[in-house]
Amino acid sequence: MTEKTFDAGDFTLKQVREYVWELPQEDDMRVPGRVLASETLLEEITDDKSLQQLRDTTHLPGIQKYAIAMPDAHQGYGFPVGGVAGLDAENGCISPGAVGYDINCGVRMLKTNLKYDEIKGHEAELVNSLFANVPTGLGGGAVVDNAPVEEILERGVQWAVEEGYGVESDLAHCEDEGFRPEADPAKVSQKAKDRGRNQAGSLGSGNHFLEVQRVTDIYHDDVAREFGLSDDQIVVLIHCGSRGFGHQVCTDYLREIEQTHQGLLDELPSKELAAAPAGSQLAEDYYGAMCAAINFAWTNRQLITHQTRQVFERVFDRPWEEMEMELLYDVSHNIAKREVHDVDGEDKELFVHRKGATRAFPAGRQELPPAYRDVGQPVIIPGSMGAGSYVLRGGENSLSETFGSTAHGAGRLMSRTQAKNEYWGEDVMDDLREDNEIYVKAESGATVAEEAPGVYKDVDEVVAVSDALGIGDTVARTYPVCNIKG
Asked: Where is the composition biased (Basic and acidic residues) (predicted)?
């Protein structure tokens, strides 16, 4: 039988099996590369430099098994967005570029007991009130002015709960209970802390958003029940990260690593993959600073959750507890974590880098909160503001295939510049409201143009690949009602 290949210009991918394509190990590559995609998605992935960046990633010291590109992969900074790599935590390295600038950019979903019919007629009031009460856009603006950054960095969401911005059940339904104990504020520059001080509780700009949605489809009844999801239910999705704080942490450490570990940098095909050797002082310092940024981002989303609950209370004239506005889960997209994985039959501690990828642990994994340990981790995959989003659960094959990971969204098809040339923000908002009954409010029309539905890949296709490979099982689909953006 003839081996099936996919010609992508300078690269020829070999099909391992359906939806799994391999970039063979050659020259100085330490491992092969793998792309998880349908042929339709593969065509889109090969339109930019994603495959070159995937190949570059295979040169990182200590990389295990293969470098992986998810179905939503597209070109990033050095390391593809939608990329996953497990690097030996003892003999490998850690790379800020493989985590990204927006450390712990992530998404959380709030459930409610409201049905779509109860929202109808309130869309305009709801979107306006959310926009007025959740800070958006570039620069400052926050729920907590002059926030106690040191406490937030050290304690994460626990600080927010103790200050009245959340409840204990929020901790129980957040990845790592909203807290990384390895966080070390002493390893964070004053400049980073100053940037974060007045951004605690803000969406920011770009692809970040807050979206009220309705559940339109249930695919896995028993899992949906465990997650507390049902037909026509209203949920809220919050997507943002560590703002200028995380960006500054990444900038600081990239610069320092480039200067201190020039020898390792010279061995890599791209300086954007600058890495600190495992066990080095800089590797430890960056990990402590990155974990502090992770705590900041979780707290940021928690503060926005608090504001959202208060808006719903005012619009629907009842306590949020009565509307059962409980956290389903909070997942991280840009992160490197110490995790133990099976590599060739041996348990190894790895720095698992997920950049634009979501952890997707199946049932039984000890890191999961007790609420989901027997059913599997909730995975939230947002689409564009004109398409559906999905809730999945970690699939049985994720540990063997992807170090327990799956896609994080639809993935971009075109650059922001191209999007602004092709779309007019006001037209996009008008079309969404008139044709789809989706209400959008944003800081500027340019932001909406950059995030127009046509800018993104088909999220249905991305999720279908994840489901077919058994790395993330489809549980439910949601559809936008209203959306606010920076």
From this structure: 177-197
Lookup: tokens for 339: 């995790």
- Give the DSSP H/E element, type plus range, for residue 161: helix 157-162
Separation of alpha carbons 24 and 34, rounded Å: 9
| Residue 239 is assigned to a ligand binding site | yes
> 14-31 pLDDT, tens per residue?
999 999 999 999 999 999
Tens digit of pLDDT for each residue in 187-219? 999 999 999 999 999 999 888 999 999 999 999
Which CA distances in Å does 179 have to 17, 176, 266, 389? 39, 6, 35, 26
DSSP output for 315-329: HHTS-TTTTT--EEE
- Burial class of residue 322 in the structure, from the number of CB atoms within 10 Å of its CB (0-12 exposed, 13-18 middle, 19+ buried): exposed
> Using CA atoms, how far apart are residues 274 and 252, in angstroms rounded to an integer?
12
Q: Cα–Cα distance between 392 and 328 in angstroms, integer?
A: 12
189 among annotated binding-site residues: no
* Rounded CA separation 149/157 (Å): 12
Q: Which helix (H) or strand (E) holds 352?
A: strand 346-355
Fold of 5-413+456-485: tRNA-splicing ligase RtcB (3.90.1860)
211 is in an annotated binding site: yes
- H or E element at residue 381: strand 378-381
The reply to whether 409 sits in an annotated binding site is: yes
Known catalytic membership, residue 408:
yes
Which of 59, 74, 353, 408 is flagged as catalytic?
A: 408
Per-residue tokens: 317:
């004239």
Annotated binding residue 382 = yes
| pTM score of the predicted model | 0.96
Burial of 148 from C-beta contacts in 10 A (0-12 / 13-18 / 19+) = middle
CA separation for the pair 398, 333 (Å, rounded)? 16
Q: Which tokens go with 229?
A: 């999801």
